[in-house]
Amino acid sequence: MNLIAKLLPAIALTAGLSAAQAEGDALHGKQLYAVRCAICHSLDYNGVGPTHKNLIGRRAGSVQGYAYSPALKNSDVVWGEANLKQWLSEPEKFIPGQKMFIAIPDARDRADIVAYLLQAGAQQPSKTP
Ligand code: HEC
To answer: Model-level pTM?
Structure first.
């Protein structure tokens, strides 16, 4: 009895942790983004890669003023959690002919980066002047 009462909080904590991990750790994702993505991408402007502003729910290849590969521009992908993970695991396999030549082979890291993007790349309501 007494032992179970002592163990319960620990069990609950462990369950809570693994649930959080399954969804990805956005804070770790933010750190990874800074190191692995920010060389080419920004949340504010187009660089070597297109901006990630309003990425979530955005049609692939649709940012104005960015010169996409025809492959990405003509794909019918709309960015969300599942296809971002697919993209990051191997862009060329997901959309052959694209021109982003990096991948994130580690599933854990991918989940963390996507968890960050789900927040940072969420659609912003357009500002009314
Ligand atoms: C070496 C430069 C480079 C790095 C580093 C890089 N990307 Fe890219 N990314 C690109 C380029 C170039 C494109 C455009 C690809 C095309 O047009 O085929 C792109 C496109 C994308 C797109 C599609 C956006 C859209 O508007 O359709 C997403 C999403 C993306 N990158 C995510 C990431 C993430 C997340 C990381 C970090 C893990 C990352 N990229 C790292 C160069 C890079």
So the answer is: 0.86
- State in Å: Cα 80 to ligand 1 middle: 14
Q: Is 37 in the pocket of ligand 1 (CB under 6 A)?
A: yes
| Cβ 100 under 6 angstroms from ligand 1 | yes
Q: Identify the CA nearest to 109 among candidates 4, 30, 3, 50.
A: 30
Domains of the chain: 24-120 (1.10.760.10)
44: helix, coil or strand?
A: coil
Instruction: Say if CB 95 and CB 71 are below 8 A apart.
Output: yes
User: Mind listing the pLDDT tens digit for each residue in 20-55?
Assistant: 455 799 999 999 999 999 999 999 999 999 999 999
